[in-house]
Amino acid sequence: MRQDSTRRSAIGQRYILDDDRPHDARFSGRFDDFVAPGDPAGEPPPPRRPRNLGRWIVRGLGVGIILLVIAIGWLAITAPLSKSLQPPTPPSITLTADDGTPIARRGAIIGAPVDAAKLPAHVTDAFLAIEDRRFRSHWGIDPRGILRAFVHNVGSGGVREGGSTITQQLAKNAFLDSDRTAARKIREVMISFWLEAWLSKDEILSRYLSNVYFGDNVYGLRAASKHYFGREPDKMNIGQAAMLAGLVKAPSRLAPTGNLEGARKREMLVVKAMADAGFITKAEAAGVEPQRVLASRPEQLPSGTYFADWVLPDARDQAGEIKTEATVKTTLDRRLQNTAERVVRQAGLRQAQVAIVAMRRDGRVVAMVGGKNYAKSPFNRATQARRQPGSTFKLFVYLAAMRAGMTPDTMADDSRVEIAGWKPKNDDNRYLGQIPLRRAFARSSNVVAARLTQEVGVRNVIKAARDLGISTPIPNEATIGLGTAEVSLLELTAAYAAVANGSYPVHPRGLEDSGASKSWLQSLTGGPRRMPDGIRDHMLDLLGASLRGTGRAAVLTLPAYGKTGTSQQSRDAWFIGFAGDLVVGVWVGNDDSSPNAGLHGGGIPAQMWRQFMVSALNIAPVVTPVVVEENAMDPDAVVGPEEGIEAPIGDLPIPEGTIDGLGMQMKLGRDGSISIAPSRDRGPPPPDAPPPRDRRGEDDGEE
């Protein structure tokens, strides 16, 4: 039954349904055509009621006020304004030896706060010109400075310029650490706004100048002006103020007491910036002269030793937050340190440098010498220098061989070899054919080491070095078996300590509790691993044989183990070994890596090692003839003084004389050298014996 049109629904009233009118093809497929012309349904709908925007604005303001209150509360707790007056570094930390005796002090020189409003204009203007020219007008951050730094950095292909304002620098120095995460940068901006809201510009500038670092462990403008120029900050001239302002960018590198030329160049750059900013006239800028600084004054307690420099970062971490003064106990043994320094003085070195590291088998460093004179050169050659280790690196080649199932009795081919166009050779051009690995290690055969590296694989040699703690880059090539990869004396000595200790790796440390701060993950994944007893026994066999060969100048009256090393053209000479509970490494060479004629690991370094061990272990020197490995390469048998090296004169009695036996004559020199020749009263040597030769200038097998 059809409904009346007056009772239809809205849809029914709006549209004429198909069953109410005949079908017309004109309206087929088009929705709009279903609306008849003039139908009210075709008119636009009435406008909607406008939303209540005011209600949302009020809600947004309320949320913003709540967030602002939370941010202010958070900043009041985490970044109290009073903290911006505190120095950003601990005032003083004292390092002691293992017996509690102070050995060095590291502390900041912190001056009294300054009032920027009372300083001469040219003093504050120097800092504003170079650090933050729009300091007086921005609100804590400088968008123009950030954009300028971004453009300059993009153009130079790296980070060359920063966009931080003085307020941001104060926020970072006083409240934040030095990591470069986005979260820290956001906190820095928030704290900058916080400082700008609660402090005046002069107060911000005063706190910045009172705490900024100026090099030489000096913090604050007052301390810096006294330290470098001997005057109060309000008495500084334009040049002096400009020099201090220039130090802020790189204080450690530009400190005028160590880099006066660099500080003066930076001074003139600041003066130019002051003139460009209109703080001074061009005539005033032209009249500024390079400034002079006071000479540094010595302190009663030594403030700089090689060991102290090395251990200080760990000591600061262990001490944590220091408000006045902290004392940190180290592993240094004063008696052994004095022994090491005495051995260096008695070594007779001229221009050649030296480094010694002595540690216990577990890695506790008890003595360290990084050079002949710290005052002249604080560069630590024991920890910072990377040099070619020569044959001392063969420790890892033979360890890889022992892991592969070989033994010291395994026969090796000591004959000429060519590996991918590379032709290693023994320095004396003698090749003995089939010999045990023990003898090859004792005579430091290069061709055997090259063959072993090829046989066990370069990767396995590298793995052996990594397992024992070598972290420096090692090239993936066969030549590493002869010590072409550079290492530090500290790491290489620790690697030998791993063999002595029977577990690896051994981490050298200068603090008793330095490992206590390791995370649980590091403890689970980085713990020591035991070296199989059989492999360790084989390595001790080889290292003991070396002291009957190239390292015989290091022989002691108790069991000792070690290895000599000499790099190409005698640039570096090493001896690393252990006896008792001490593992000691010695390096001798020139800082510029120039050759040292006559310098070899079996000579000066081995003799220094022996002298140190005799005194450190309180044992008698060797007085009986040394059993020498036959055909062992001994480049140091009769080496006399060469350029840069003198024969060491120690305070230890060394036997001398001549011993005949078995058709051979062995001569013991006063310097501990040993030379072998056919006996004159025993007739001619056997037919297969090598002819006597002058061994001057030979090395211990490294090529």
Overview of the structural elements:
The longest helix is centred in the first third of the chain and has 26 residues, at 53-78. The chain is α+β, with helices and mostly antiparallel strands and 703 residues long. The radius of gyration is 38 Å and the shape is elongated. It is built from 22 helices and 17 strands. Strand 12 and strand 13 (572-579) form a beta hairpin. The strands form 6 sheets. Strands 7-6-14-13-12 form a 5-stranded antiparallel beta sheet, with helices on both faces. The chain has a 3-stranded mixed beta sheet with strand order 2-1-5, covered by helices on one side.
Spell out the blueprint of helices and strands.
Blueprint: H1 10-14, H2 53-78, E1 92-96, E2 102-107, E3 109-110, H3 121-131, H4 143-156, H5 166-175, H6 182-198, H7 201-211, E4 218-219, H8 221-229, H9 238-247, H10 251-254, H11 260-276, H12 282-286, H13 306-319, E5 326-329, H14 334-345, E6 353-360, E7 365-369, H15 394-403, E8 411-414, E9 433-436, H16 437-442, H17 446-456, H18 458-467, H19 489-501, E10 503-504, H20 520-525, E11 529-530, H21 533-546, E12 561-566, E13 572-579, E14 582-589, H22 604-616, E15 657-661, E16 664-668, E17 674-678
Parallel strand pairs: 1-5, 3-4
Antiparallel strand pairs: 1-2, 6-7, 6-14, 8-9, 10-11, 12-13, 13-14, 15-16, 16-17
Helix pairs in contact: 3-9, 3-11, 5-6, 5-7, 9-11, 14-22, 15-17, 15-18, 15-21
